[in-house]
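Same chain as my last thread, 534 residues:
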Amino acid sequence: MSYTALYRKWRPTAFGEVRGQDHIVTTLRNQILSGRIGHAYLFCGTRGTGKTSIAKIFARAVNCQNPQDGSPCNECPSCKSIMDGSSMNVVEIDAASNNGVENIREIREQVQYPPTDGKYRVYIIDEVHMLSIGAFNALLKTLEEPPSYVIFILATTEVHKIPITILSRCQRYDFKRISLETIAERLRELIQAEKIEAEDKALLYVAKAADGSMRDALSLLDQCVAFHYGKTLTYDNVLDVLGAVDTAVFSKMFRAVCQGRTRDCIKELEELVIQGRELGQFVTDFIWYMRNLLLTQSAEDAEGLLDMSEENLKQLKEDAGLTDGSTLMRYIRIFSELSSQIRFAAQKRVLVEVAFIKLTKPSMEANLDSILQRLAELEDQVASGTVVFASSSQPAGEDSGQKPAGSEARDSDYPPPETVSLPSAQIEELNFIRSQWGKIVREMGMSIRPSFRDTIVEPSGDNCLCIVFSDATNYAIGSRPSVLGDLERYIENTYGKKLYLKSRLSGAGERLDTIYVSEDELKDKIHMDITIED
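reply #2:
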């Protein structure tokens, strides 16, 4: 006897065997039990969610001689004849290959004759969106006023292509994608019945790869079992058969992206190609990995939304802390665009490599989110004091004090900077505020941040600092008492330091690279007593 594919062998034969469509099953059962059966139904939804299976169960149920709680008994002559395809009461039509007007006219002629046995003649038209405009028009009148013994069940995956005149004459049922847990539970039942040994992790990945389609899940399981026939189906076996990639590889590549290591991303991608991994599947899975990272960052109870082990969840949280949400959305956008391009591309590897270069080098893109990422990186460098100026390769404030950003003059154009000694308490406060100045300005918000561009902080006595502006317009905005007051309160609330701030505008040609040292450091360097004059 020839082998029967799992999705055909385990097709539901009663409403109780249908998984994931409880809202539809309950409604149809109640209609049968109450005798309120409609004349036209439209089943719409993605592939493999049970549209045709439920249509066949419904066709048997309305003609069943011994229905059981609204479901067919599958034992009476009517049910058996419908199941083996010999019944004249149930006609299944594939609209993809029978989409002409003459095919619909044949139906119109047939519906004039009542069923020879049973109560109803049921017409199941699959992929009904493939009918031509003329065929839809020919079906319209019959669909509107059919004989009392005729039921039409239209099934489609693209409901938007069906004319509104047809939609308005049908009871519409939307089939949902089947959840990951429901598919995985069904796979566990089947492997027990088929006496197949498989790891639970492997079944979960098959269920995830099915993308809400029970038929796809059974087909993928059939493929994996056939490749490793007689052996325990492991997670690694499933990855090999489906050309998929383990999540540990995604974590490794994401860390390389966040750290700007383009070369490591390309090398890791080359390793995947050598292993024979499917790049289209890799792109899809990597998008889902970044989606999970974004959920971990954004949702309060991300653990409830992500079905994964504690170990993987811990790794996900660590990776989510490597970047911010806006950057993650940029990464997802680039790979989503790649997903639509790679499907028909001849050089898939090149497209994926270009995408990774875009991720690691935001300067290669001129759109808004790339610019925002570059600005965020510069702000982090300013806050940490490691900004590299165009005029010098040394970090600001390393050996010449704090310099205003954007200064283009070279150090060789000026005499050496002046060194000024301060009491230890003042120099400590000055150095602390200077080290946090970029962060303070950034946290104060967009209304203040632009006005404090190219500013530095200098001492102005005990518990007092002076903000020096290099631009007159910025000085007019930033020197307002309300703005300075907000800065003082922010510093006190955040760092616990009670400081007073004032401001001034720098003069033309003024040096702003004065080096401030403590009096103790100055004594240690010059090895002599210091007399301070009034």
